[in-house]
Amino acid sequence: MFFNKKLKNYRISNLNQKINLMKNFSIDFIIMKKFDNKFSKIKSTNFINKTLYKDLKVKYIFVSNNFRFGNKREGDVNLLKKFQNKFKYKVINPSPLKKNKVLISSSLIRKLLQEGNLKKANQLLKRNWSVEGMVKRGRKMGKKIGFPTCNIELNDYVVPMKGVYAVKVYIKNGKKILKGIANLGYRPTFNQKKILLEVNIFNFSGNLYNKKLRVDFLKFIRKEKKFNGIDKLRKQINLDITVAQNI
């Protein structure tokens, strides 16, 4: 995304989610370096000498065979191995993770989400795919038709199949978990042009504006659809909620 400014809606998880996921694996500490223009121009040998050897004093480096680093991607695993004796570290090559001979990759997860195969994506992630975001004020169309929603912008997240999902909502840093239903799309019945995640939380009353929520996607219910009138939309939403509650 740094090199291709046109690339939007690409992330599977945001930075906060990645950190929390790593905490689950008893990681002692994480060092984050912001990737900027200056950093992108560091030569691969300089990165090994200064960053890995002098600054971090690494003993082991775990990288896959397709790992590239340094200015214009000049460095690779072979270069790391070439210098491991000189700089006193050891390179370890984990085998690519496969299931039924299929390589599990971020590209595959994105493809499954975009195709609406949420079940398979969640199986490969070993968790429910989720989105974090702040609740924004909207046009209150949901409230007007009897289904108030929390509006969350997707920002850089990958856009899954547009439609209706059964979800779980985490409030107050995950301390409170609620069930709900979400519509992700352009709301064609109201002729909206901006994609939005709208979450209706079951049996909830309260003000969540400017609060941060995490929304776990549990099951894909149906594709986005334009309805001929509010009454037909309201009827369909009631049917969707029944399905979601059973899930």
Describe the protein.
With 247 residues, the protein is α+β, with helices and mostly antiparallel strands. It has 2 domains: 33-92, no CATH class; 128-246, Elongation Factor Tu (Ef-tu), domain 3. Helices cover 28% and strands 23% of the residues. It has helices at 15-23, 37-40, 44-55, 77-82, 106-114, 118-125, 141-144, 230-246; strands at 60-62, 90-92, 98-99, 102-103, 130-136, 150-152, 163-171, 176-185, 196-201, 212-223. The strands form 3 sheets. Strands 5-6-9-8-7-10 form a 6-stranded antiparallel beta barrel. Strands 1-2 form a two-stranded parallel ribbon. Strands 3-4 form a two-stranded antiparallel sheet. Strand 7 and strand 8 form a beta hairpin.
Which features characterize this protein?
247 residues, alpha+beta, Elongation Factor Tu (Ef-tu), domain 3, 2 domains, six-stranded antiparallel barrel, 8 helices
